[in-house]
Amino acid sequence: MTHLGIHLLKKKNTYYYCFDLQEKEDDSVKEKVSNSNGFGRIYGYTVSSFAWSWNPISNVLVTTGLQGKSTISDGYYSISGLPLNVPIKVTARKIGYYSDRKTITLTDEESEKYLILDLQPFMGKSDKKVIDTKDKICTGCIIGGVLSTGFFPEFIKGAIVTLKGDNILTRIKTSGITGYFIFLNVPLGEQYTVTARHIRYKPESETVVLTKDEPIGIVSFYMYERDIKAKKSNIKVI
User: Fold this and answer.
1) Per-residue pLDDT at 231 exceeds 90
2) Largest CB tally within 10 Å, which of 45, 54, 66, 73?
3) CB-based contacts of 224: which residues, under 8 Å, 6+ apart?
4) pLDDT tens digit string along 26-40?
5) CA–CA separation, 84 vs 74, rounded Å?
6) Which CATH number is 125-223 given?
7) Within the chain, which residue ranges are assigned CATH 2.60.40.1120?
8) Where in the sequence of the chain do the CATH 2.60.40.10 domains occur?
9) What is the pTM of this model?
């Protein structure tokens, strides 16, 4: 069972709330797995944290090599009979979303592990060409969203997002109606600077490194409004 955790985050003298899913043990629901057979178990939920929504995602295929389970309506999954003391690659896949991958190791002391798998949605028409049910998706891409700060962040449409690197020409994208943007075919093994600008907001920048093990970079910009009133007060009428 899970509950919604709330914590207060401070950024540039502005406070806003963040929400996350946290585990809450419930012995009446939790499947019991005997450690005497030498196997372990993973369980948890598949969600999308895009724009802090934390919506559960059903019918997600969660695999651990040869084993796999589909999530139910509330995003819950459970996979038993997993080997102990060896790395296990866990992947969550669903058409229309970027896959989430994690590597975990179950041990004799910790034969069960709770995992939240976070899938980010495809939001643009150009993303359809990188969807592949065999998980051959987007080798070298940077995706993200542009939102305002505050208690209830809003999507920022029309933000100019630039991608700069030492060995590529500067690329430019415009955020869509949901604040979403994506850069495809970005070379791996490089460090990039992603910057979001909008006439109403102060610019924000993030650094992203793409590697063979981490070919997808996710960036979230939370932008602060410019002090337009202060600027207007400095204008002198002659």
Assistant:
1) no
2) 45
3) 12, 14, 149, 201, 202
4) 444 444 444 446 789
5) 28
6) 2.60.40.10
7) 2-121
8) 125-223
9) 0.46
Q: What is the 3-state secondary structure (H, E, C) of the chain?
A: CEEEEEEEEEECCEEEEEEEEEECCCCCCCCCCCHHHCEEEEEEEEEECHHHCCEECCCCEEEECCEEEECCCCCEEEEEEEECCCEEEEEEECCCEECEEEEEECCCCCCEEEEEEECEECCCHHHHHHCCCCCCCCCCEEEEEEEECCCCCCECCCCEEEEEECCEEEEEEECCCCCEEEECCCCCCEEEEEEEEECCEEEEEEEEEECCCCCEEEEEEEECECCHHHHHHCCCCC
50 or 108: whose pLDDT is higher?
108
Kindly state the tokens that stand for 156. Answer: 């920022």
CB 216 within 8 A of CB 143: yes
Distance separating alpha carbons of residues 153 and 161, to the nearest angstrom: 18
Q: Which fold has domain 2-121?
A: Immunoglobulin-like (2.60.40)
Q: How confident is the model at residue 74 (pLDDT cuts 50, 70, 90)?
A: confident
